[in-house]
Amino acid sequence: MAKTRTREPGRTYSRVVSGASGRVLVVDDNKVIRQLIKVNLELEGFEVVTANDGVECLDVVHHVLPDVITLDVVMPRLDGFGTAAKLRADPRTRHLPVAIVSACTQNEVETGIAAGVDAFLAKPFEPAELVRVVHRLIERRDRRERKGAPAGRGRG
Fold first, then answer.
1. pLDDT band at 104 (very low <50, low <70, confident <90, very high)
2. Are 92 and 60 in contact, with CB atoms under 8 Å apart?
């Protein structure tokens, strides 16, 4: 498991893991959920960086350069939909795969699709399904990059 260190209050960065399957930015205001997602992804070889909310996500995304971002919907300062919309509006993050990890009501799914979300994972989730969603998003992004096309959007 990767060691973490705190640079600023609330910001956690993983050290670079040799041979990691990819880097995931996990954004959730609930510390327990963040840690649950982090541990499950690290056990599968991912390097994980966490943020407490959408504002922090947008502050660190350009330094972290994740392969995938997971977002909770209900967060203080900037919710998951607002964060996804801002990521899509920025040319530097427009093509990053984004997964919503939330209750995933019909309204959330519709709003998420409109904001450019790529995949949805309903809480409570099975850790194996979390890993499958992240792998699928990375594989889809890699296939599109090999073809020279940017990563697309859609439900995954």
1. confident
2. no
Distance CA 89, CA 59 (A): 15
d(CA 97, CA 152): 8
Task: Find the distance separating the first CA and the last CA of the chain, reported in whole Å.
Answer: 27
Cβ partners under 8 Å of residue 49, min gap 6: 12, 13, 14, 23, 24, 25, 26, 60, 64, 66
Cα–Cα distance, 97 to 66 (Å, whole number): 9
Q: What share of the chain is helix, strand, coil (3-state, %, to 5)?
A: 40, 20, 40
Q: What is the mean pLDDT of residues 81-85?
A: 96
**Residue 4: beta bridge partners?**
14
User: pLDDT digits over 69-78, tens only?
Assistant: 999 999 999 9
**φ, ψ for residue 119 (rounded to 5)?**
-150, 160
Cβ atoms of residues 77 and 47 within 8 Å = no
- Is the pTM higher than 0.85? no
146 pLDDT band, cuts 50/70/90, is confident
Q: What token pair was written down for 42? A: 């690290």
